[in-house]
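Something for you to look into today, if you have time. What I am after is a single protein written out in full by you. I want to see for myself how the chain folds. Could you add the entry underneath, on a fresh line?
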Amino acid sequence: MKTLGEIAQLLQGELRGSPEFNIRGIQALTAAGPDEISFAVGSRYKEEVEKSKAGALILPKSWDCMSDRPSILVEDPYLAYALTAAAFLEKPFRALGLSPKAYVGSDCEIDRNVSIYPEVFIGDRVRIGTHVTLYPGVYVGNDVYIDDETTLYPNVVVYEGCRLGKRVAIHAGTVIGSDGFGYAKRGEVHVKIPQIGIVVIEDDVEIGANVTIDRAAFGETHIGRGTKIDNLVQVGHNVSIGDDSLLVALVGIAGSTRIGKGVVLGGQVGVAGHIELGDRAMAAAQSGVTKGLAAGEVVAGTPAMPHRLFLRVGSALKRLPEMVKQIRDLKQRIDKLEDKLSKEKNGNDA
C-alpha cells in the first residue's frame, strides 16, 4: 500500500487530490478498482478514463479533460507507469541460502546472503556476490563470476569463464558463452576454430528467454551497461554492444560487429558481421543491415536503406503494376510515333 503523495513524489509529478489517499496497486483503465491507480497517455483515452473505476489517475500534463478524481500530472505517462508498477512489485530480497540439493564445485566463493535453489550446478572456482538468485536448473561453469543482485531464472546456462555484472537479469533457457560459429575449410571438410574467449555482461543488463550469446574466439563478447535484449536473440562471437541499447525479439548479429550506445534494432533485424553501427542508430523491424551505419542513422528494408527512402520505395511498390501498364502504353505510343515519322521521312525522300 502506498499513498498518492508517495507516488507523486516518486514520479516528481503535480499532485491534484489528497496526498493521504491510499493506493493498493496499479491496473489498466478497464480493470482498475477504487483503491487502484491507472494511467492514460493522451486525451484520446478520455472516454475510457471517464468510464474507469480507478480511484486515481496518472495523466499527461497536457490533459485538458480534468475531473474531480485524484490525479498526478507527469511529462511522460509511460515512464510514470513503469516506475509506479516497479514500486508496487518491488519486494525486499529474502536470502534462502544455498540449498543442500545444489551442487557446488571446489574453491568457490559464495556470499551467504544468496538464494540458490535445488538442482543448481556450480563449477569450480566460481565467485558469487551478495543477493544473487539462481533458480532450479541453472548451470554455472568453472571460473564464472556473478556480481551482486543478479538473477538467473530456471535453466539458464553460463559457460566457463564468463562474467556477469551487478543487477543482471537473465530469463529462462538463455545460454551465455556457448561456442562462437567459426570454421575453416580443409578441402571439403569444415575444421572448427577454437573459441577460447569469454562473454562479459555489464551492470543493469536484462536478457530475455532463450537468447544465445556466443563466447569470443579471442578476447570477449561484450554487452554494455543497461542494454536490454528481448527473447530469442542471437549475438555472435566477439560482438560488442554499447550501453543502453535495445535488441527486440529475433534479432541476429553476426560475429565481430560493433554496436554503439543507444542503438535500437527492431524485431527480426539481421546484422552482418564485421561492421559498425554508430551510437543511436536505428533499424526498423526485418531490416537486413549489411553495411555500417553512421551515428543516429535510421534505416529500414532489406538491404537496409535510409528510412525515408524506404517509405518512398514502399509507396512506389504499391503503384508498380499501374506504373508498368503506363510504361507499356507509353512504349506503344512511342513505337507508333516512330513508325509514323519513319514512313513520313521515307515518303519525303521519294
Q: What stands out?
A: The first strand starts at residue 2 and ends at 3. Residues 70 and 285 are 40 Å apart (CA to CA). The chain has five helices and 40 strands. Residues 2-89 form a domain with the Udp-n-acetylmuramoylalanyl-d-glutamate--2,6- Diaminopimelate Ligase; Chain: A, domain 1 fold (CATH 3.40.1390.10).
